[in-house]
Sequence to fold (1256 residues):
Amino acid sequence: MSVSAGRCYWSSVLLVGVLSVFHLRTVAPQHCVWYGECGSSSVLPDKKLNCYYTGPPKALPPEGQPLLRELCPGYDYGNRSVCCDVDQLQTLKGSLQLPLQFLSRCPACFFNLMNLFCELTCGPSQSDFLNVTRVNSSSVAELQYYIGPAFANAMYNACRDVQAPSSNVPALSLLCGKDAKDCNATIWIQFMFSIDNGQTPFPIIPIFSDTAISGFSPMNNETVSCSDILEDGSGPCSCQDCTLTCGPTPVPPPLPPPWKIFGWDAMIVIMWIFYTCFLLLFVGALVCAWCYRRRTLVSEYGPIQDSKNPLLNFSCCERLGERFEHALRVLFTWWGSLCVRRPLLVIAGSVLLVALSSGGLAYMQITTDPVELWSSPSSQARQEKDYFDHHFGPFFRTAQLIITTSLNSTIYSPYPAGADIPFGPVLDKDLLHQVLDLQLSIEGLEASHEGQTVTLKDVCLAPLSPYNNNCTILSVLNYFQNSHKVLDHRVGDEFYTYADFHDHFLYCVSAPASLNDTTKLHDPCLGTFGGPVFPWLALGGYDETNYNNATALVITFPLNNFLKDSEERGRALAWEQEFISFMKNYSHPNMTIAFSAERSVEDEIERESDSDITTVLISYAIMFVYISLALGHIHSLRRLLVDSKVSLGVAGILIVLGSVSSSLGIFSYAGVPLTLIVIEVIPFLVLAVGVDNIFIIVQTYQRDERSPHEEIHQQIGRILGDIAPSLFLSSFSETVAFFLGALSDMPAVRTFSLFAGLAVFIDFLLQISCFVSLLGLDAKRQEGNRLDIVCCVKLPEGQETKTDGFLFRFFKNIFAPFILQEWTRPVIVAVFVAMLSFSVAVIDKVEIGLDQKLSMPDDSYVLQYFKNLSEFLHTGAPLYFVVEEGVNYSSVEGQNLVCGGVGCNNDSLVQQVYYASLISNYSTVAYTPSSWLDDYFDWVKPQSTCCRYYNNTGQFCNASVVNPSCVPCRPMTPSGKHRPEGEDFMHFLPMFLSDNPNINCGKGGHAAYASAVDLSANGTAVGASYFMTYHTILRESPDFIQGLKMARTLAANISTAIQQPVFAYSVFYVFYEQYLTVAYDTALNLSVSVFSILLVSTVLLGFELWSACMVVVTISMILINMFGVMWLWNISLNAVSLVNLTMSCGISVEFCSHIVRAFSISVKGNRVERAQDALAHMGSSVFSGITLTKFGGILILALSKSQIFQVFYFRMYLSIVLLGAAHGLVFLPVLLSYVVLPEPKKKPHENNTAYKILYR
Fold:
């Protein structure tokens, strides 16, 4: 952020001799038109005029010879006399300081420029091309300068590409009086010689001609191209300063063509072919099987082979599975009986363990920091962020306004001539005054923090502090010094306006670092904080670089950022809160204002969570009420209060909540922080799993008939022995799947998986212990005819007929027979395979990322800010290329690896970033980087007055100081003109980094680079440093992801080229890095979960691999279909949806595993009957448990104000439940009826009454 004094370098350079008005040429050829200085300018009294002199050239005194060689190295006058004295040379040197600083980085450009001025000032043949047209006393007052167009164009062409590294703009934007794109040779020279630039003491009129006019021959000296090597050995200009030295313009690689087959999307075509082939094969197989059965008179519905047949011998795995299943049955039977016989002990023990585990909630920590939530500490982006924060300080905070208006555009007509210029509605002067009032009001805000007053100055970014404590405010009003008076500044009379804010604005957007515009106003453009305000940061809604067409003003208040939990950070947060409160209450009829502060997103997410508590509570309340009412099996109205199980349902819900709190407490003891995702998702998950198990336990008991002489504890123990293996299968599968999901690098996914896995397992343990004990107590209450809840009230004895529940009868008599009919099953398979094919076809089309607008409530003020940000802004986030420690900047070789000027490597860091900026639409790099190293080289040159020190103390002497004891840092010798090396480099670098820019030296590095260079503790070496540019505007998640990819690719190329570690850093990388690998992470996470389910299911299903495969196939179909729903419903893939997909994997186990196990142990006669039997018994419990419970609660989520709730919770939860129910209760039974699985064998322990009763 270097300060350029723009056009002020021309001061006193044009001190030439003059003739009186209408004075004819009387000077002989090869003579002077002036010599020496005399008199003061009437235009600029502090400027000297040259003395009119028509005699021959004079010999230059010896003390002037070194100065002449320094200023005019290409002019070897030898002993020839010249038309200037030492004073004129001193004036010329002082006047050329700023062009030296900006143009000398291209030696050919500066050589040609000095050619122009050396001939003008000292040329011994001045009279050939200079015509004095007016003399004031003895001083030249006006002059004509005849210049050959060939020379003028060559000089311009050598300079037009030269860059100003700290400002990211062409140097001619600072030196031409116009934007560089509007500048040419004629305009540039006319501007330099015009008194309107505020620096030229008298008018010089350039006359461009190839031939002699009125006896004057145009000055047409030989020039050098920017690609030439100069006689003094100076090399050609660098590529970014001279396109002639560049190779071919970089061409972005062509985008890979979309994968198409016959003009259609390839995946869609492939899946159509797959589905067609599948249908043909499937229908063919069905026809063949039907024909075979007709010919052999074998029915698919015929009985299975008797397991007593000696041909069916047990394999080793089958015998092992039989023993394992028998052991589980015996264990759970004994345990169930014990829980019913000792209910108080079991319940008290359970409550005690839950209480102890939940005690950890006292140590609970909730992570709301987005960085901690979405970025792993070991991730590349996180490590790079920590490195950047450690060496350069954390990226600053921002408070920002985007202002639009309903006013109309205006037209400005320049005086005295010029085309009309349209000005956007936000550049109306009255509106600018109103905006300035608002800006000043914000500057005056006072907040309170811990009893102390906090103002903007206490927390703002002030780059020149303590020399200049003004806050950085990136606003067009800083072009007017944030002053109503400067905004109203006008030069003119009562009839015409010669210059006003329009002219100043047009000048400043082309030269934002200028300290003195070239209009008649002569006001500075540099911001009051000591740095430039780039127009692309302060304006929006313009086309190309026509900033005058802007339709939005952008005002940014950068604030210092501090490490977390620091006192300073608290002060910044307090001021931001005051800013937000002020803006919420501010209104103006002419302005529409969108605003945001650094804390806004986090605040709105917190408010969103608070506002959704009611919605979530209603959702859970509906599920709780349903569970409490649906558990009861009412046989008659008279026994309504006896047969209801409200108290048991409430107890079951409390058990679910207890398992959640226990999981949270245990991990809180371990110091694992919670996240909002854990709090919002895990209760839903555990409730789904827990309620399903509760319904299975209760409804199995309700359908069971107690054997004669069997006590209640024996009955419940037997029932638990029958169903607990199934519950254990589902719960343990989910637990293992979730714990393996914790291997993810995403903190949000890892934390969710840990908490969910433990909560599900604790829930299972509580259900087979505490809930079984409560079920035994409730069964005794019911048998004693005591009322539910009010158990002390007892009804009279009465005979009641036991009947099956409605859902059980529906599934057994209607639903199961219907879907398993011979004609229905093929249709179901065809429909579900079609769904699968469609989902596979669109799985690669699911968008990756998270639209930041979705994270905000519907009524959030931040939504309008996001909308305006996307609509109006033209520049993206700052982009830093960080060079880690290891580069030896004190050596020429090390310098050449990084710099972008003369002699630097063509593949240096600056050069490669420059090349990338040429193809910004591809690379997302918007501008050439600001380079502290190149600016330092310009600053330290001995020809410059920037680098000076007091010869008596050795301390730095600023260029604005007038003191004879200040001497140049480096000698005017050949070696002194070269780059500093070794000790010289490190000796003067701290001076550069502490130098404030001023009118005499615009290259001071304090404002722009004070934080860009990390010096070693003893100041003897440069450690890390960065080179800053900007991204192009990035609007949507894919844009940010692409920006991150391209920046990292570029950084990797730079690292390879310079053999030093370089990384790209921008503030958003830490949030978007997850999307570079989210597809891989999703595939890995879900694959590991599914594989773990396969292993666990294989073991717990008695080592029946095929049965486990049926579970996994169905779960995989559910997951794939979830991606199809995500594409249809515009749900993107990100950490939130990955958590939900992981959860859906667990919930899918509930829909599938119970059905498969019930099928595997069914003793019905054939596959179809076994499928019907399993669906009737387990399907009704699964449907009434997980499906209906969740369906009611999910529908309430649609009423949430939170967009993220509506998209990622309502839509995904509803899809999980509907797809799970459809696959588990429709497709899976049909699949089981087709697939040949191991036939059930009559095992010795199956002769007990449990099988005969449960599967009657």
Q: What stands out?
A: Confidence is low (pLDDT under 50) at residues 1-28, 304-312, 1241-1256.
